[in-house]
C-alpha cells in the first residue's frame, strides 16, 4: 500500500511539472507588436468565450501573417488584437 501511495504521488508531481512547463512566457519581439498595432484594415472576428493566452482559435479564424516573422501571426478577435502561433493557432499575447 505504501508503494502505491508513493507511486501515485510521484506520478502526480511529474504530471504537475509538465503542466507548469507549458505555461512558459513567450517574449515577443517589439517589431511584431508594433506591426500588429499599425494594421488598421484588419476586420474583427467574433469569438464566443474568453480570448486569453493559450486559447486555441478554430480553423475558421483566418490568421494574418507578419512579414519576416513566420513564428507569429495576428487576428483581431472581439475587437482585441491578439498575437497567435500560426502552427498551433494558440494565442500568445493579447495586444489590446
Salient structural properties:
96 residues, alpha+beta, Nuclear Transport Factor 2, Chain: A, 5-stranded mixed beta sheet, disordered N terminus
Commentary on this structure:
InterPro entries: DUF1236. Residues 1-21 form the signal peptide. Pfam families: DUF1236. Keywords: Signal. By secondary structure, this protein is an alpha+beta fold. It has a domain at 47-94: inner membrane protein cigr (Nuclear Transport Factor 2, Chain: A, Roll). 30% of the residues lie in helices and 19% in strands. The chain is built from 2 helices and 5 strands. It has helices at 2-21, 30-38; strands at 44-45, 64-65, 73-77, 80-84, 91-94. Strands 1, 2, 3, 4 and 5 form a 5-stranded mixed β-sheet that branches. The longest helix is centred in the N-terminal third of the chain and has 20 residues, at 2-21. The radius of gyration is 18 Å and the shape is globular.
Amino acid at each position: 500500500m505504501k508503494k502505491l501511495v508513493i507511486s501515485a504521488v510521484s506520478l502526480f508531481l511529474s504530471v504537475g511539472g509538465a503542466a507548469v512547463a507549458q505555461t512558459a512566457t513567450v517574449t515577443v519581439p517589439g517589431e511584431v507588436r508594433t506591426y500588429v498595432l499599425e494594421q488598421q484594415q484588419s476586420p474583427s472576428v467574433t469569438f464566443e468565450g474568453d480570448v486569453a493566452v493559450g486559447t486555441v482559435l478554430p480553423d475558421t479564424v483566418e490568421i494574418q501573417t507578419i512579414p519576416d516573422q513566420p513564428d507569429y501571426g495576428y487576428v483581431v478577435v472581439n475587437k482585441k488584437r491578439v498575437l497567435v502561433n500560426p502552427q498551433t493557432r494558440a494565442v500568445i499575447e493579447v495586444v489590446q
